[in-house]
Write a structure and sequence with these properties.
mainly alpha; Growth Hormone, Chain: A
């Protein structure tokens, strides 16, 4: 289990590195490089628009790779999705800017971001299911949390490289060629991920299926559509929190508050480090007390904390911004640490790869794709403190709270062993 869990963690870390490095670049440099004819605000919105395209592609990727996972096994999904995501990320790093090829540059950027989203849409379902379906029921939350540690590790890798480049290069060097280096690094990471995944075995629950689903999406749409919509709404808040902190706040603070890139990346990364370290700890609590109670607590905490978070961000003081981000990440991890066990348990094995992945990635569209765009527009209408962003995030948290309240608990019940009868 440890070898399998670590391989899944490494794979999700690599794929989310690819996804996050784009988000950071969108916040810092892609607007001026690919949309130079726009105003600064419009350029940022356009860059976040290409960022959102990746989220729109993720549900389509979950349908495509979910079909493969439910028909042919979870293991092939891990290899194909890693190749697709890695190749498209390297291609972004090689892409000429608007100054070189004109309008073709943003069009190609949009296409590559879409392909990147397709690959990531398949990654989560394959990695999580392979781990969850191998895990013993009473420790499923713990072992399934390892792939969930991958996204923060990928984020830290992406932003660590960006932080080092920001500190080492001038603004002109970073805008000219420095931003490309993290994208090229995705190629090396993809090769490492393929090597790690080459020895993984297929899921025993998939192998035990007598007859895999012929058209998994049709079965999910017919029999589980309500469950898919509820899980998408439930996960929207977590996505909104994460990308408000890691993407929107980075652009807002560097452009509006004139905080340096280095300071902002350090504040965000410190909060994400703590969130990543706490993921398996919270997952153990999920094994003991249930998945749904923790999700409800996390949503309630998010609803309370979002307005204080934007107020702390508006101070531009590094320690206060970090505390605001930390509170948001603690609410996030309380929900998402148990999601990798919770979602697969909601669906029957024959359509699990499609159902769980589609619900997970639709939540990304609702929360992750729209949040940087909506928050940027709302912040532009406000004063020093972007209260509109806080209200927006609070509303999403309340929506997710209602959806989690309508979902069932899934934690397996441990039956005590029978006592021997004496006499």
């Amino acid at each position: 289990m440890l070898r399998l869990a670590m391989a899944s963690l490494a794979g999700t870390a690599i794929e989310f590195y690819d996804f996050f490095v784009y988000g950071t670049a969108a916040a810092l440099v892609l607007g001026p490089l690919f949309f130079p004819t726009f105003s600064p605000l419009a350029g940022t919105l356009a860059a976040f628009g290409t960022f959102a395209v990746g989220f729109v592609a993720r549900p389509l990727g979950s349908v495509l790779f979910g079909h493969i996972g439910d028909r042919h096994g979870r293991r092939p999904v891990l290899v194909i999705s890693l190749l697709v995501t890695g190749a498209s990320t390297v291609a972004v790093g090689c892409l000429p800017t608007y100054g070189s090829i004109g309008v073709a540059a943003p069009v190609l950027l949009l296409v590559l971001r879409f392909v990147q989203g397709l690959g990531l849409g398949g990654e989560w379902g394959g990695a999580v299911l392979l781990t969850a379906e191998h895990a013993p029921p009473d420790r499923r939350g713990l072992w399934s949390s390892f792939p969930q540690v991958g996204p923060p590790v990928g984020f830290l890798l992406a932003n660590g490289v960006m932080l080092a480049l920001s500190a080492a290069l001038t603004d002109a060097q970073f805008a000219s060629w420095g931003w490309r280096i993290p994208f090229w690094g995705a190629g090396v990471l993809a090769l490492a991920g393929l090597w790690l995944r080459s020895s993984l075995t297929e899921s025993p629950q998939f192998l035990a299926l007598e007859e895999p689903a012929r058209v998994p999406l049709a079965e999910v749409t017919r029999d589980h559509w309500r469950l898919v919509l509820l899980t998408a709404g439930a996960l929207a808040s977590g996505y909104a929190i994460f990308y408000a902190v890691t993407t929107w706040s980075l652009a807002y603070a560097t452009e509006r508050l004139e905080v340096s890139r280095t300071v902002m990346l350090a504040c965000i990364m410190a909060a994400v480090v703590i969130k990543g370290a706490l993921t398996p700890v919270v997952a153990v609590l999920g094994d003991r007390y249930g998945r749904r109670p923790l999700c409800l607590i996390g949503c309630a905490a998010a609803a309370v904390w979002m307005c204080p978070m934007v107020a702390l961000l508006a101070t531009a003081a590094p320690l206060l911004m970090f505390l605001g981000f930390l509170g948001a990440m603690l609410a996030f991890v309380t929900m998402f640490a148990v999601i990798a066990a919770y979602l697969p348990e909601l669906y029957e094995p024959r359509v699990r790869c499609t159902g769980a992945a589609v619900g997970y990635n639709l939540g990304g569209v609702l929360g992750g794709a729209l949040t940087p765009i909506a928050a940027t527009a709302l912040a532009e209408q406000g004063g020093r403190v972007p209260w509109g962003v806080g209200v927006y995030l609070t509303g999403i948290a309340l929506l997710s709270l209602a959806c989690f309240a309508l979902l069932p608990e899934t934690r397996p019940v441990t039956v005590p062993a029978a006592q021997p009868v004496s006499g």
